[in-house]
Write a structure and sequence with these properties.
The complex is a heterodimer of chains A (about 210) and B (about 140). Chain A has a two-stranded antiparallel ribbon. Helices cover about 65% and strands about 0% of the residues of chain A. Chain A is mostly helical and about 210 residues long. Chain A is globular, with a radius of gyration of 16 Å. Chain A has helices at about 5-30, 35-55, 60-75, 80-95, 100-120, 130-140, 145-155, 180-200; strands at about 1-5, 100. Chain A has a single domain (about 1-200), classed as Serine Threonine Protein Phosphatase 5, Tetratricopeptide repeat. Chain B has about 140 residues and is of the alpha/beta class. Helix content of chain B is about 45%, strand content about 15%. In chain B, α1 (about 15-30) crosses α4 and α4 (about 105-115) runs antiparallel to α5 (about 120-130). Classes of the chains: A mainly alpha (about 210), B alpha/beta (about 140). The interface between A and B is medium-sized, with 20 and 18 residues.
């Protein structure tokens, strides 16, 4: 079963992963975006980690809705409302239960991913976050590790795609040949999730 | 209609100066009698390019007179942030809505119409009509 602490550790691990990869995310965002994806997410997830530590919500749903709210208000780019909506809708779908099983979480995350698609009007293949989120959530029924691998492969597979949403879509054919920064950060969230599920002890000092 | 509250208008741009200038333009073109409350929410809180949910929420609260708030946006994250705030339910005043309109022309139409005492639906319709004005 997954409790509030699991979700808090997930987001704390995600903040650490975003922090570690911020320069790479911004670099990916330079040729096809406005070179702020890494710094935007770094600011947003740092605020999430700080808020979760301060307010210490006691249910999985409350952890995710609070984190989502924080991302919407602190990121400053399109990824804020998109990731914020992902976490909030997932959190709302989990309700007030103190613990949820993995199947229930996978179902709730699907609701969140669907809300992201509706908000941005995007579909898989448009070279967006969804190209990692959808395969990730599809594989979550198998295992956290399978979800991590599927999301990573989905992100890598955005390279030959032509962007059809967001700023990169203005570039048309010139967006081809670049890995999508949003799909890359989405894959990082699944990587942090798999790390959290493995309960890696070396991360323990990081969440105090 | 003298005592009827006016619809408020919020202008959300990636750039603070753009939002401020469009607000000044729309208010200037609507002058004559009462002018509807207009607030600009441009850029990030530290003055950079981007969108701030906090600035948008504060701007909407500032122009809310109880008759609804029409929110107009420019690009990408401005649109998505307002949509996400509307979906939140408790972040914006009751009756605040994202209006699908071109930013500058729609802002002028919205502020002129709101200043005349029109309701939110009429303000929204006037702003959306700006899409129909062809320039060539």
């Amino acid at each position: 079963m997954l409790d509030a602490d699991f979700f808090r550790r997930w987001l704390t691990n995600a903040a650490a992963a975003v922090d570690r990869e911020a320069a790479r995310l911004t670099e990916l965002d330079s040729p096809i975006g406005d070179a702020d994806h890494g710094s935007n997410l770094q600011r947003g997830f740092a605020a999430v980690a700080a808020t979760l530590e301060k307010e210490a919500p006691t249910t999985p749903g409350a952890v995710l809705t609070l984190a989502g709210r924080q991302l919407i208000s602190t990121v400053g780019g399109a990824s804020g409302p998109l990731y914020g909506t992902l976490l909030r809708r997932t959190g709302k779908a989990l309700g007030d239960d103190g613990e949820v099983d993995e199947a229930r979480f996978a179902e709730a995350l699907r609701t969140g991913v669907d809300a992201v698609a509706a908000l941005g009007g995007a579909a898989p293949g448009d070279k967006t976050m969804l190209d990692a989120l959808v395969p990730g959530v599809d594989a979550l029924g198998t295992s956290f590790g399978a979800a991590r691998d599927a999301a990573r492969e989905g992100a890598l597979a955005t390279t030959p795609l032509r962007a059809r949403k967001g700023r990169a879509s203005y570039l048309g054919e010139r967006s081809v040949g670049h890995q999508d920064p949003g799909a890359t950060s989405s894959a990082l969230l699944f990587e942090a999730l798999a790390d959290t599920a493995r309960g890696t002890d070396e991360r323990e000092p990081g969440h105090g | 209609m003298a005592d009827e509250p006016l619809v408020g208008v919020v202008l959300v741009s990636h750039s603070g100066p753009v939002a401020d200038a469009v607000a000044a333009l729309a208010t200037g073109l609507a002058r004559g009698g009462a002018t509807a409350p207009v607030a600009a929410a441009g850029g990030t809180e530290d003055g950079g390019f981007g969108t701030s949910a906090e600035l948008i929420s504060a701007a909407a609260a500032r122009v809310d007179r109880g008759a609804g708030v029409a929110i107009l946006t420019d690009l990408g994250s401005a649109v998505l942030t307002v949509k996400a705030l509307v979906a939140e339910g408790d972040e914006l005043p009751d009756g605040a809505r994202l209006v699908d309109a071109p930013f500058v022309e729609g802002a002028v139409a919205a502020v002129v119409t709101a200043s005349a005492g029109a309701d939110l639906a009429a303000v929204e319709a006037a702003a959306m009509e700006a899409y129909d004005y062809r320039k060539v």
